[in-house]
Amino acid sequence: MSMPTDHPIPPYQLAAGKLRKQIQEGKLKPGDKLPSSRELRTELGIANATVHSALRVLREEGLVYSVPNRGTYVSDPKAADFKIGSTAPAWYSAAKGKTASSDEAASPATEALTQILEHMREMAAELKAVKQHVATLEDKVHQLEQKDAR
Predict the structure, then answer these.
(1) Alpha carbon distances (Å) from 104 to 26, 100, 139
(2) pLDDT tens digits, residue range 44-58?
(3) 33 phi and psi, to 5 degrees?
(4) I need a labelling partner for 21 at 20 to 30 A (CA). Which of 9, 31, 34, 96 fits?
């Protein structure tokens, strides 16, 4: 199953689309490990950098998350509201669903990690606002430069 070379959509997006479809159809389920980069490269007939770009797209969409030196896994859709470049792993969604009346109390480590992720979510929102502000300022600088050039 190699990627078409004359397609208007870039190969990494086509590869991401094929993997996305497998996830959406349930062929790859939450917690499943994706094939290695080498296996995807061979299976899809694309370069290693293209595989990494496709996986980056899926991480940004919250469909997968990567564990260093372990691999890339399908995300839990219940945790898909957390996006900073990857979704939270299963322990986060499990802890998030627990309540004080739950039979299993969340461990202190899980509670701490949950708090850290909440702070990361807040920081991500603040970062997005700062990036938008910087873009606005850059536009204003560009407009002023154009006025000065006249």
Answers:
(1) 29, 9, 52
(2) 999 999 999 999 999
(3) -85, 130
(4) 96
